[in-house]
Amino acid sequence: MPKILWMSPYSLHDISSGASIHCRYILESLQQSGFEIWAFSSFVFDRPHGGEATFGNLDDLYAKSPRTSIFELNDRGIHYIYLKSKTTTELKRTCAEQMEYFAHFCEVLDIYKPDIVLGYGTGMDSYTCFAEAKRRGCATVYMLLNGKHGHFSFPHIDLVLTDSRTTADLYAVRDHINVTPIGQFIDPKYVVAENKDPTFVTMVNPDFNKGVAIFAKLAQVCATELPEQKFLVINSRSNFVEKVALLHEYGEGKENVHPMSGQSFPNVLMSAATNDMRLVYEKTKVAMLPSLAYESWGRIASEALLNDIPVLATRIGGIPEAVGEGGIILDVPQHCIDDPLSLPTDEEIRPYVDALKRLLQEDWSEKIKKARANLDLKALTQNLVGILLPLCQPRQKRYHDRQRGH
After folding, report:
1. pLDDT tens-digit readout, 120-168
2. How big is the CA angle at 316 (ends 312 and 322), to the nearest 5 degrees?
3. What is the CATH number of domain 3-182?
């Protein structure tokens, strides 16, 4: 049985990270296809609360086994090894913590003897872990799920994978780096709602770069033009009330004009983050992805399509590739990209209002069905297995075999 070791200081149980969620689905799909999977991580999350759904309070978790620095669990067929950490923030980890992470990684290599080390992270401990895995004869694979690593030449990496053709093309043209797109892995049983009562226009994560300015302006206009329509915000990584108070009008001298507050939106409801998105999609009529910064895919779009929900999104990065025919893609005002706190004008928000009305009133079922064609989990998994299996054939005698004199 081929063996994969996932390696990243970032937790794969982080519900505030789309990358973590995606990679968990990939590993689970590979495990169900015959790979043995271990994962070595630490308690680093995109947001401090990202692991609460799985681990609860970390202080309480650590107190249950105070004499060991390791926490282990088996989840959905994968064996997870977590190194306890003093901080949940990547940039606050000390040199000593990174050295400890590397030391434990070497121990895991000795015990598990993987064929492939797969992961992500450009910190020094991730860099040295990949280098050590390569030195020991393991194949090394990097998961690249953003457009920010053009400065990184991926030394000691045999294969770089990404989700979208858009991101693969970006790195090929901009950085002359060969990246292989494998699509977006989503297991429908974890995201498709059974009992649906479509009610809301929904946005997940009301952050500035995620386009809360566009969402807020749209909701404000619709309070008059579509008074019966309700909007829903999932505060997964940011808080809607806190963010909208900082948004300002567009124009010279208007940087300090903040026309909105949490009380400005009687048609907007908020909900906390959840590790069961089925609860969100059962109430969603239209999903919004008004992102203002590059996204490699747009996971919410794919999950919405699997729930027969049309999508209203911006023409940013790989989002159009994710939406396909299953929604409406609109251009973004340049000033919103330059300054994500800048609100669209009444004229600039008009295409979004008109598009939303279309999505609410028209039948999008056939277009959504076509858009779902690239979300076939079985086909995506078979393709990835075909890519990874050749890497499991030793190109040199493994380090642990050489040590034994084989």
Report:
1. 998 899 999 999 999 999 999 999 999 999 888 898 999 999 999 999 9
2. 60
3. 3.40.50.2000
SS3 state of residue 68: coil
pLDDT tens for 310-339 read: 999 999 999 999 999 999 999 999 999 999
Positive or negative, the CA dihedral 351, 314, 335, 257 is positive
> 238: helix, coil or strand?
coil
Q: Edge-to-edge strands of the sheet including 311-314?
A: 268-272, 230-235, 200-204, 284-289, 311-314, 327-330
Alpha helices for 136-264 (secondary structure H): 165-175, 212-225, 240-244
Start-to-end CA distance of the chain, whole Å, equals: 20
- Tell me if residue 217 falls in helix, strand or coil: helix
Q: Which CATH architecture has domain 188-373?
A: 3-Layer(aba) Sandwich (3.40)
Domain chopping of the chain, boundaries = 3-182, 188-373
Nearest CA to 177 among 152, 195, 204?
152
pTM, full prediction: 0.92
Which of helix, strand or coil describes residue 21? Answer: helix
Inter-CA distances, 29 with 185, 189, 249, Å:
8, 13, 46
